[in-house]
Amino acid sequence: MRRTKEEAEKTRHAILAAAERLFLDKGVAHTSLDQIARDAGVTRGAVYWHFQNKAHLFHEMLDQVRLPPEQMTERLCNCTQQQSLQSLIALRDLSVEAIGALASNEQKRRIFTILLHRCEFTEELRDAEERHEAFINQFIDMCEKLLENAAEHLRPGVTPRLAALSLHALMVGLFTDWTRDPQLFAAQTDARALIDPLFRGLLRDWPDDPGPART
Predict the structure, then answer these.
(1) C-alpha separations of 15 from 22, 35, 61, 104, 149 in Å
(2) How confident is the model at residue 149 (pLDDT cuts 50, 70, 90)?
(3) Closest CA to 46 of 55, 58, 36
(4) In CA terms, which of 1, 114, 133, 152 is 20 to 30 Å from 64?
(5) How does pLDDT run across 55-111, given as a tens digit for each residue?
(6) DSSP per-residue codes, 27-84
(7) Signed CA dihedral, 137, 139, 145, 147: sign only
(8) How far apart, in whole angstroms, are the C-alpha atoms of residue 215 and residue 87?
(9) How many CA atoms lie within 13 A of 177 on its CB side?
């Protein structure tokens, strides 16, 4: 039984790796499950054994490089409400690490390149699109809650919702630009300098050198 489970997991990883290669090369919409099966060296039935359809396969591929919402929530909520500014520093740290990881993790770079530049959310991928949008909304909502706890630090006219949307827009822009052209900025060394000005613009008392969050 153990051997069977190990072989099944090996097959699953082979299918995901083949999908990643083909999606990056051909685009998601122009890659079929038959092509993925052939590239992985498995049968079409093996693909359907592990994945319901292409939308499910695409979603599982994304989940390999996305930090689960539960882990994000746990990490960002380690700081108490009395440490509201520390919670925002933790959010800054997470944002900086996410940008830097593009340069240090080749798989993350490939998969986000697929998502941002090789994917058209056709009807076939409707379920994957809905799950992706739910993930985005969950992240924005989580950021908004943190910012609500630190509302006294926000500049006049900046609501927690607007601040959360601003952060998400900056992150998407940086991810999109760097995966399009990695020469635009050094993801590992420039990320903090790109992220901090946003927090400085949103918050009245953002420290000149906030350092890492204390939990």
Answers:
(1) 11, 10, 10, 24, 43
(2) confident
(3) 36
(4) 1
(5) 999 999 999 998 776 677 777 766 544 467 888 888 999 999 999 999 999 999 999
(6) -STT--HHHHHHHHTS-HHHHHHH-SSHHHHHHHHHHTTSPPHHHHHHHHTSS-GGGH
(7) negative
(8) 9
(9) 14
Rounded to whole angstroms, the Cα distance separating 189 from 100 reads 7
124-163 as b/e, with b when 16 or more CB fall inside 10 Å? ebeebbebbeebeeebbebbbebbbbbeebbeeebebeeb
Classify residue 82 by its DSSP letter: G
| pTM of the entire predicted model | 0.88
CB of 58 within 8 A of CB of 29?
A: no
- The Cα–Cα gap between 151 and 157 comes to 11
Beta partners for 203?
A: 154
* CA–CA distance, 36 with 138 (Å, rounded to integer): 31
Domain boundaries, the chain: 2-51, 65-202
**Options 3.30.70.890, 2.70.40.10, 1.10.10.60, 3.40.50.970; which CATH number does 2-51 get?**
1.10.10.60
Q: Element (H or E) spanning 69, and its range?
A: helix 69-76
| 65-202 CATH | 1.10.357.10
Per-residue tokens: 175: 């991810």
Residue 47 dihedral angles phi and psi, to the nearest 5°: -65, -45
Q: Which residues contact 194 (CB under 8 A, 6 or more apart)?
A: 99, 170, 174, 185
Whether 20 and 63 have beta carbons less than 8 Å apart is answered as no
Please provide the average confidence, as pLDDT, over all residues in the chain: 90
